[in-house]
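Risk register update: the risk that structure generation would not scale has been downgraded. Supporting records follow, first protein first.
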Amino acid sequence: MEVKKSPKADLETKKPVFMQIGLVVVLAIVLIAFEWSTTDVDASQFNMMDEVEAEEEIVPITRQEEVKPPPPPPPPKVTDVLNIVDDDVEIDEELDIEDTEIDEDTEVEFDITLEEEETDDAPVFFIVEEMPQFPGGDTELRKYIAQSVKYPVIAQENGIQGRVYVQFVVGTDGGVTQVKVARGVDPNLDKEAIRVVESMPKWKPGKQRGKAVKVSYTVPINFVLQ
């Protein structure tokens, strides 16, 4: 079977025309490409714009001005007043100056007396070479306490008894000071024990290296109901 083709539909006859059109299009594109002009943009302008914008955004640092105190007032002026007195006073007394020579053999006598006074800052010892002693010894001390103690009536009625330890300081003169309860039983018994110790006569003071010193001493007072 033969294919019948119309001569008008045959594209081979129009091939030269298409070739010419294609060349014209390509040449037009090449000319346009060569004639195309580009403008260079300066990048520094953008940098300057950025810097300007950045500078505008920076907040200036402000500092509060220091208020200086007012200067002190000037010191008052002191004016010296000079009283001029006529020097018409005559002095009749004459000074007698004795010329005394001191040799190596000359003896000079010095009369120096030192008085030792007991001060409150003197140290208090607990153990010394010679401990304080009650007049007559420990036997007389126990006898004195037994005769001086008056049992409080309130403690007797409540059946309160016990041993109260009283601490005190024997001074350099033998006097009893700084009396306090080291270990108590009852306020009434403690008060009576302090009264008995404070009413003690002077002791024989304690000595350290032959010198009278303050010594802390503790005495037990026993309260027993019979």
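Supporting record for the second protein:
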Amino acid sequence: MKKKCVIIGTDLRLSYFHTAISSDLETKLIATMTWDDELQASIDQLEPHILFLPIHPLKMECPFILPKSCEVLFVGKQNEEIKQEIAVKDIQVFSYLEDEQYIWDNANLTAEGFINYFYTHEKQAIYNKQFIITGYGRVGKRLAHALHHLGAKVVISVRSEHQLFEAKSYGYDIETLDNVLVKQKSKSAYLINTIPSRWLENTHAACFKYVFDLASNPGCLLDSDENIPTNYALATSLPGMYFPRDAGLLIAQSVQNHLSLLKGEKSSVERS
């Protein structure tokens, strides 16, 4: 008998995720981003063994209470209500956004998504353009690799000395984050931010031809709620925007791998 799995969320990626795991689980997709009395009642009635929460936090309009039937909870970005409920329940909890394979594969989709976004937004070639990438984590590394192979001039800018010289060893130009603004008098470079914290003065966006912020909301601007620069774009969730099927299958692979580990079996999900 198949385990029951309820998937919550409105992201288009989840419809592909739903289809991918439906051969192994008895699934139901509930398209909402609000946890309210109606959703709580539906969850209790369905009695799922597995509950999948969306990538972005749910809006809470009533207490978050897991059903007694729930054995495994998959979480994206959590809010306090979810954290508090997890703390008092004896269940398996898996954060798919922290799955290392998922992170790297999703970084590849983000890099390819940015290229699509740039072409659509700027209607220019990447070849021979200068891109300053702030941050050299997974997304920064995959972006640098992709842009370099399209003929761009890539500069990596971070505070970490370790990451600076790692980037230099791969042939990229480097600049410390503290100095990156000083050398942008010509306004000829595009800035791609991947650092998930507010560090850039809004007025300093004018130092760049355009600022593409790929970090999670609220992005890198210090006062991002007002006075948004005209040359600034918060471009998040690029995999879901351009490749929802591929991105949904990545989530499916992560979930199935984890369930298989719990059962001591190999994953049955294949990316195609």
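The chain is about 35% helix and 20% strand. On this basis the risk owner (M.S.) recommends closing the item.
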